[in-house]
Amino acid sequence: MREARGVKEDSENAAPAGYRRSAGTPRAQARRRELLELVTDDLAAHGLVDLSLRRAAKAAGTTHKVLLYHFDGAEDLLREAVELLRERRLASSLAAAFAPDHAQTLAGRVRAVWPVLTGTGEGQRALDQALGLAMYDPERHAALAVDAAGHFLPALREMCPPQWSDQRKDEIAELVFAALRGFLVQRRTGGSDGAGGGEAGFEALLRMLEREEAAG
């Protein structure tokens, strides 16, 4: 992949045709997870621009051939590392959403999650870059954006009032997810304060959720 697209193109970024892996044993799976955690830590610290197997191998303290034993190439490794970053952020979001020091309503939980999503916590730059990459080259990297929905929609459904129907939870979760994603893009591109950062829209979203909950 060309440098502008985040992952460098080189002959070592993909597993050779016919390359066989016997990485299904518990020991191999544990090693794979260890390598993924180390590469993910590197992405969290430095972003995903210029990611290559050689850079990833250096971060993991191994060789690119060892990574090819456990992963299907740089793009496979990138997708899994971004997914792990999202899992980490989701854990932080859920911890904030269900903390006992705020209103235990959907609006209150969404408000509690907002600082996690807008902050500069672990991997935020890499996650922003992953979304940009998916928008820049959707044919190749759409999964980097789709995976985000797969992580956060179930969490948003969980935040909804338990008495709501499944259909209502699904509809509101999708609405909130789309709105938050839009506000985040606006915030990243339009500034962090005032209308340019999406704050007015976010407050309007919370008022809408309060009315929705009050309706029963």
Automatic annotation (TrEMBL):
Residues 1-11 have a biased composition (Basic and acidic residues). This is TetR/AcrR family transcriptional regulator. The lineage of its organism: Bacteria, Bacillati, Actinomycetota, Actinomycetes, Catenulisporales. Keywords: DNA-binding. The keyword Oxidoreductase does not apply. Residues 52-71 bind DNA. It comes from the Bacteria. SUPFAM superfamilies: Homeodomain-like (SSF46689). InterPro entries: Homeodomain-like_sf, HTH_TetR. Residues 29-89 form the HTH tetR-type domain. Residues 1-28 are annotated as: Disordered. PROSITE patterns: HTH_TETR_2 (PS50977). The keyword DNA-binding applies. Signal peptide: none annotated.
